[in-house]
Amino acid sequence: MATYRPAATRRTDLDLLRIIVCGGVILAHALLIFAAEPRYHVKSAAPWLPATIFYEAFRISTLAIFFVLAGWSAVASLRRRPWQRYLRDRAERVLLPLVAGVVLLGPVIKWIELGQGRDLRINGFRLVTPPDYGFVEFLSRYFGRVQLLTWSHLWFLAYLFVISLALLPVLLRLARVPRREWMPGRVLAFLPAAGFALLILTTGAYWPFLPNLTQDWGNLLYFTACFLAGGVFAAWPGWEARLRAEAPWLLAMALAGLAIVLLAGEGVVGRIGVGLCAWGSIGAALGYAGRHPPSPSPLLAWLGEATMPVYVLHHVPVLALGVLALGWGWGPMATVLFAWPLATLLSLAAYRLLVQPFAWPRRLVGMGPAPQPPKTAPGLGGGIFRPDGVA
Fold this sequence. Notes:
Strand order of the largest sheet: 1-2
Strand content: under 5%
Helix content: 55-70%
Structural class: mainly alpha
Distance between the termini: 21 Å
Largest sheet: 2 strands, antiparallel
Oligomer: single chain
Number of helices: 15
């Protein structure tokens, strides 16, 4: 049996992966304006096939990888602190940003959505007549009617909070066992894909995608499986080493699964394709990132710390820029290439100018206090996706 030798450096590969995936989420939301999926805040008059294809790929891969990274970080966190502090951390860095986002960002997102004649509620979606009153009047209605409240993209935080608490006994166990350094055989690099496919198939996960938590048990269980896989990776680094060895084949599996999804659509075969694509994406992403870890740098540290705030903030500029481009009559490609990079830059600027220097804005987007100057090597900041510690 081959043996995995743990590295002595920080997991800069996971930090870079988290940054890339966050950028992929922003791109996915820009693509969603033109994808065939009808349930979104802003939509074009007609779908665009390339947007549908690439959105499907990003939706399957980025969500699965984000939950895996969060599971990895949870186990790493529990190695360094008691479970009571972990629960407090989840409340401060997951629940608080969710509530703050619903209160501070939700009204703007909902106003944009209603202005497009769309009403995406926690219990469904419908077309509506755009409001004939102003934003100030809308605010009183937003906070006075539960049905108008929206968590939009921050549904991820609600699911993450529930999963983090529900799996606490398992996470504690994974954090306390000695790390398994031996590398398993090739079969374990691919076998979980069958488990993912079976889980998605039997629970009816993935379609339709309306993350309301209370009536979305299939997706909740699916994301729980992704989160748990990340926790197991943290306890068994040898398994990650096997993924690195099989990264090209895992990428091929992901692409094959995506092709099945696109060709078969909703149904039994399509859900099997989702499972194959999700696990292949997880394995290929971790595998290739581990093969080429970047050197620590101030830019990597800054972007790593910015990931959570940018995720929280990015949806408002994506939607606003999408509305502008649609109003100007721009085509799909021009709109995506306009909204994606500019929304990313605006989110980073908002983080740098309005969040990073100040204590309360940091807390509201899930960050800890501003770090003190390091005495040794620089850290990588805080965040629910951050892989604390070394491997």
